[in-house]
Amino acid sequence: MNPRVSPFAAWVVALTFGVLSCADAARYTQVNTTASKISFTYKQFSSRAYGTFSQFEGTLDFDTANPSAAHAALTIQLDSIDAGSSEANEELKKPAWFDIANSPVATFESTGVKSLGNNRYSITGKLTLRGITRVVEVPVQLKAENAIGIFDGQLTLKRSDFKIGEGEWAGEVVSDDINIRFRMVAPQQ
């Protein structure tokens, strides 16, 4: 075996695999709010109920080659709630619930991102509702489709942790567990 061929072959293999693994890396920096969605489910009188928020803004700096350096932020306009009826929407804006007059937005600001492998990540951050901030951990799955990143995640919040639904609603009429699901769509940069 010619010793000159072996180092050259090794260099070609290393370069090829290095380029291919870099080709798999993607960066996402803009959230397409029109294509994105935030929804929630809960139980009311033991029946499952569904709702959405239609107005929100997100910022993102996510590089799959360096997820620990990623940052994400989200601001939700709480008066954009749709809980299935105008009566429910108006009730949820009142002081016992979201208290929109004093706290019109909910915010999330990431403080850390951990790769779990297979395009799964754990995003830790501060969620603020009604002026109360709690640290939450959000599992997220990234699906890349045609140069678009789709970040799907969900978490369960206890509404009592944020003093949402106090007074007569503090009982079991509405479940304390609120399941939040989101799909953030971001074009690859």
TrEMBL record:
Domain Lipid/polyisoprenoid-binding YceI-like span(s) in chain numbering: 27-187
PROSITE patterns xrefs: PROKAR_LIPOPROTEIN
Keyword hit for Repeat: no
Signal peptide (from-to): 1-25
Sorted UniProt keywords: Signal
Protein name: Polyisoprenoid-binding protein YceI
Organism: Pseudomonas migulae
Organismal lineage: Bacteria, Pseudomonadati, Pseudomonadota, Gammaproteobacteria, Pseudomonadales
